[in-house]
Amino acid sequence: MKKVTFEFTVEELGVLSTMASDQLFRKQFIDSKMPGYRPNREELDLCKSLVGRLRSVVDEQRVKNAAAAPPKITNPPRISSAAKTPVSAPKSSGLQKKAAAR
User: Fold this and answer.
1) 98/102 Cα distance (integer angstroms)
2) Which of 32, 52, 98, 102 has the fewest CB atoms inside 10 Å of its own CB, making it the most exposed?
3) Which DSSP string corresponds to the chain?
4) CA 91 from chain center: how many Å?
5) Comparing 102 with 69, which gets the higher pLDDT?
6) Cα diameter, the chain
């Protein structure tokens, strides 16, 4: 079999892998229920192998990219000086005083 070489980004390869996996599912479980379907076991096995290889390459590249990326440094949240001061109770309105007097 002749080999062909393509260049893909990790994202493109991930999308292609997902589409191939969906197509494989359709071929394996949906098409087999259709009238007149002729199973081709060799083609199905080749598809399974290819989808597995695609997924492993995508996973490898994602792990490499995550390891190569610098760690994200987050600053702790700052507490304002206003938050440290105690909050006074709300003053009661005139209506609340009249209701309490009754």
Assistant:
1) 7
2) 102
3) ---------HHHHHHHHHHHHHHHHIIIIIGGGSTT----HHHHHHHHHHHHHHHHHHHHHHHHHHHHSPPP--PPPPPPHHHHSPPPPPPPPHHHHHHHH-
4) 50
5) 69
6) 97
Confidence of residue 55 (pLDDT cuts 50, 70, 90): very high
Q: Copy the structure tokens of residue 52.
A: 């597995």
Question: Which string of b and e fits 80-98 if b means at least 16 CB within 10 Å?
Answer: eeeeeeeeeeeeeeeeeee
Residue with tokens 């393509």: 6
Domain boundaries, the chain: 10-68
